[in-house]
Specification:
83 residues; 0% strand; globular; mainly alpha
Length: 83
Amino acid sequence: MNELMINLRAEQKVPLYEQIYDYIKDDIKKGRIQSGEKLPSTRALSAHLEVSRSTVELAYLKVILRHSLTEDILFVRLTDCFR
């Protein structure tokens, strides 16, 4: 997978985990994250974005809970994201 280039804005009212979630959701819908593609680990992404690991975990959890049953992103692989 290409490196996630997320431009987080701490000054916004939108929480950081929501910004990460929105970016991932949009990339899935636009086909930049393909079915079966492995997302970065929570440790790797949190280090890259310079945010806490729990922030990334919340974003990934929201992806799983909100979108795991929709056809267009059903097979995005999130199984290793929490290791």
